[in-house]
Amino acid sequence: PGSVSAAFQEYLKHLGLQDFPCGFGSWNKSRLNARRRPWAEPVGLEEDVPPGEETPEALLELLRDQHSPWALPPDCSPQDRLLREVAALAPELLCGSRVFQVVKSLRILDKGVEEVDEGLLRFQQLEELILSANHISRVTSAHLPRTLKVLELCCNAVDDLQDLCAQPPPELQHLGLGYNQLCGPSQEKHLTVDFWPNLVSLDLSFNSLTDLLELVSQLSTLQNLHILVLQGNPLALIPTYRGFLVDSLPKLSILDDIHIGPEERQQFHGLARQPGLIRSEAQVVVSIGEMKGLPNPEAFQRLEVDSEDPVITYSYCVTYEF
To answer: Which of 27, 59, 215, 317 has its CA 20 to 30 A from that of 307?
Structure first.
């Protein structure tokens, strides 16, 4: 599927919300009819269930028992379990467009999604959207529910934040953009409090950001930012990288998954007022381990000058790509 909406429909089919023991069917007909007739006697106890039907407890047991053929795999998400149990106990709540009112967390991983379409606006209660490991290059913020608090786009192809920052969800607390294609200096201007007033956690790891000074000047406006991940960017190779960030962002608690303690903050105190210490260059030392299958140069050095033996010359080229 090319869009998030199409991937969600495939996801619903995979869950089987309309199939036994979920959904409507002969296994729960009396109970569901009773709900449509409020004046009828309540149905639910074992002795009240007609032959051929199942109690709500029995249906739940079929979903939860790990040996049941209808059980979900152990690594499924809490959202999967919730939807399946709701579909068994109250399938009318998930009929048609009602399913969009129930979903608060949507995780679509590695499904070939390329487009964040406007169909997402039907999720009026959505708080968490995880779209990692897809093929998304642009995110139109107008297609994101305003209730969103977590947006994870790790391992995609996002190379520009302009569309995302046009009308971003105002309550967003976590933005994950690790392993994308962001490169400076044009992207830093989108990482300010004007766009993300409630941002607590930001992941920009393994992109191509290079301007540490400009990035810090923008991030310093995010008054609620406590967690920041920048490792894997070229700017992280700067010798004073961590110390400069620790001193420049006093409200930061965790940098690159490492807690910032009082001792470290005291150690780098005052570094933010010395931007001249930041050099736009870095040194990388590469060590090559044991190499097999190459002739030993010492063997050629033992050849006599006047030797009539043929001489074979070898040359090698080692290339490093950054």
So the answer is: 317
